[in-house]
Amino acid sequence: MDPALHPGWPATLSWGPVELHPLRRRDAAEWSRLRLVNEAWLRPWEPTVAQPWGERHTPAAYRAMRRAAARRARVGTSLPFAVRVEGRLAGQVTVDNVVRGALRSGFLGYWIDGGLAGRGMGSLAVALVCDHAFGPAGLHRLQADIRPENTASRRLVERLGFTPEGLLRRYLDIDGEWRDHVTYALLADDLPGGALARWRERTGG
């Protein structure tokens, strides 16, 4: 990989019980199990796909997803991280559709095991990725588009300092319908101390 195309990648990030690393081939079975048990938790926020949930989340589906993510990472358009909490696979955080040049922007997406909800692990993982994106990866802006009904996800980004910038009407085909989304953004200079420092301040971590 040309580091000029994709500075800051590959990378491993960690703080306390949370570690983030590039997607690993050996995690296919663990990812499949985690996604299957979290169907009710995740499905309302996932893109519409005709294929049944079980077929979309087999180990083979993971391997195909990982190959696609690795291709985007190689050409500098994605930062695809797996999330581990206390050593166990617990979710993913991805900065996708990375654009360089005058914009230096990316779109933030994430999911976390529903069994960890309320413990701050998802927000810690996102904070680590934000600091990496604004630091070694050299980005200026991160955008997160969230359904208005997804209060847990909205609270996560708001606590990390993301600012709402407007409503995107019927923006994405999610869970069988065109859904409105609230668009949030965080700029590199919004948090002089960084997102991890903001997380620690808000959680006492």
Describe the structure.
With 205 residues, the chain is α+β, with helices and mostly antiparallel strands. The chain has one domain: Gcn5-related N-acetyltransferase (GNAT) (Aminopeptidase, 3-Layer(aba) Sandwich), CATH 3.40.630. The chain has an eight-stranded mixed beta sheet with strand order 1-2-3-4-5-6-8-7, with helices on both faces. β7 and β8 form a beta hairpin. It is globular. The N and C termini lie far apart (36 Å). The model has no long low-confidence stretch (mean pLDDT 96).
Question: How would you characterize the largest beta sheet?
Answer: 8 strands, mixed
Query: Which runs of at least 5 residues are low in confidence (pLDDT < 50)?
Result: none
- Rounded to an integer, what's the Rg over CA atoms? 16 Å
Arithmetic mean pLDDT: 96
Provide the helix percentage.
Answer: 25-40%
| Tally of DSSP β-strands | 8
Strand content range = 25-35%
The total domain count is 1
CATH architecture label name: 3-Layer(aba) Sandwich
Fourth-level CATH superfamily: Gcn5-related N-acetyltransferase (GNAT)
The number of helical elements comes to 7
Query: Helix/strand/pairing class, anyone?
Result: alpha+beta
CATH class: Alpha Beta
CATH topology title: Aminopeptidase
What is the H-and-E element order? EEHHHHEEEHEHEEH
Could you give the order of strands across the largest sheet? 1-2-3-4-5-6-8-7
